[in-house]
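lol forgot to send this yesterday, sorry. struct tokens for the thing we talked abt
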């Protein structure tokens, strides 16, 4: 007979992340480790880590560091928690920026602009909270109940929700065109 000891995800976890790409990996690692210890389904953890990466990347690209520091010198704040209802919530707070976070409609060939669309497709809900001091928090409900045995199965149809149009539907672009530069 095996003895199973239930562990709970810490009520909350918050960390300062350098304003730039340096701290994203550390934040992802810490989140993955804590959620695993808390017994969260691996598919939910994968989604949460992707969401955290997108939010941190957006905060560093579009937002200022906290506390009025110069870009690259300060921090942004990453936080995640499982609330009393079992909802996994991820938040990233930065010092605000010139634009509001909003999903974009990038071209098929664009190198970015899909992050919030990916978050919308993967998660239950998301939004933006403005603070009096100019800080901005983007929050995401990654999953509504991490204790549900089917947690994380929403991703089954993810590809159909975010798929690019087929190359054949793009005027003037055929398969042969992709190989023109390989001479």
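and heres what i got for the seq, position by position
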């Amino acid at each position: 007979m095996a003895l199973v000891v239930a562990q709970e995800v810490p009520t909350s976890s918050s960390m300062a992340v350098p304003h730039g790409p340096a701290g994203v990996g550390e934040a992802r690692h810490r989140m993955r480790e804590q959620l695993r210890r808390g017994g969260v389904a691996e598919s939910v953890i994968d989604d949460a880590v992707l969401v955290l990466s997108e939010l941190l990347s957006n905060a560093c690209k579009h937002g200022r560091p906290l506390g009025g520091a110069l870009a690259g010198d300060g921090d942004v704040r990453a936080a995640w928690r499982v609330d009393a209802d079992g909802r996994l919530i991820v938040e990233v707070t930065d010092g605000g920026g010139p634009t509001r976070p909003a999903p974009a409609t990038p071209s098929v060939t664009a190198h970015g602009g899909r992050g919030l669309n990916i978050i919308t497709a993967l998660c239950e809900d998301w939004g933006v909270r403005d603070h009096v001091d100019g800080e901005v928090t983007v929050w995401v409900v990654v999953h509504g109940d991490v204790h549900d045995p089917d947690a994380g199965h929403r991703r089954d149809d993810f590809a159909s929700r975010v798929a690019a149009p087929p190359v054949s539907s793009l005027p003037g672009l055929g398969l042969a065109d992709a190989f023109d530069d390989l001479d």
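Confidence is low (pLDDT under 50) at residues 1-9. anyway ping me if u want another try
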